[in-house]
Each structure stands twice: as structure tokens, then as C-alpha cells.
Amino acid sequence: MLKRFRFSFASWFRKKVVDPLVQILRRGTEPKQLAFSAALGITLGVFPICGVTVFLCGIAIAVLGSLCHAPTVMLANFVATPVELSLVIPFLRFGEIITGGPHFPLTSDAFKKVLTGQASREVVQSIFHALLGWFVAAPLILGALYILSLPCFKILVRKFSAVPSSPKKPLNSMSSPRKPLNSPTEVRLKVRDV
User: Where is the DUF2062 domain (predicted)?
Assistant: First the structure.
């Protein structure tokens, strides 16, 4: 049973993460742009409100345009989804520390109060604290992820890129020594005075 789970997870991970990443790398995007895009996607992907991260990434892609690589942002957002839920409580506690606000209890009794509507004010306050914790931590997360991922993307782009980063021979046919300038294949344009 465990062996079957490992195989299905490995197959799923390869299909959903590894194969798209290899396709991105083979298209010849710059490592700096890929590192920034991956860091941005993960940073937005750990936003403490579930279901909003795809819209945040779409807005970031629209605003940043060619500064970021859209497929990399979305792939990184997808990869960050499991981490998102695990960071809600640390962002909440960090926001409480920043504001000096009351500690929101995470007990079954508090959950019961939330479901019955008795703790609406505390819930709104805890959401605010989690958002504040993320807003303060986001620039640090973005910077750290960029610094850590840039060397990795430099290596990966060099390894998987199908497009050479700089051609060794000029691509211009006029500079090629094989054909003389007055060959029969040369096209001449005439300009007429009107």
C-alpha cells in the first residue's frame, strides 16, 4: 500500500511540478527573472487567506508585466499551497506580537464559538493580525527566496536550456565569409523617386 502511494505521489509530482519546470527552463528565460518569479509566487502563495493566492498572483503578473515570468509565478504558487496552511498560525502570532493585541485561542471551544457566531469580533481581529504578520514578513520572505533560488536557477537554466545564452557565431548572413557580397543570390533593392 505504501509503495503504491509513493509511486502515485512521485508520478503526480513529476507530472504537476517537475515536467512544467523543465518546460519553463527549456524556453531560455533569464535566471534572475525565474528566481524573482519563483520567489514572488511562493511569497504570494503563503498569503494567510485560503483561495485568494491565485488572484493575487494574477494581479502581480498584470502589474509587473515582463518583469516576471507568469508560468513560474503560477507554478511556485501551486507548490506553496501546502505550506500556506501551515503558516497561518505563525503569521497570526507574529501579527499579535506586532500589535500587542490579545492572543486568539486556538481551541475546540474557540472553534465552536466561531461556528455559532459568538466570536465574530475576535475572528476579524485574528484575520487582521494574520494579514499584518504576512505583510511584515512578505518582503523578507521574497528577498530570502530570491537570494536562495538565484544560484539554483543559474545552474538549472545552464543545464536544461535549449537556447544558447549568447551565440558564438554571428547569425547575420552578410558577415558570413562563405558567400561573396556580389553573389547571384544577393537581393538588390531599387528605390524610385516619386
Answer: 21-159
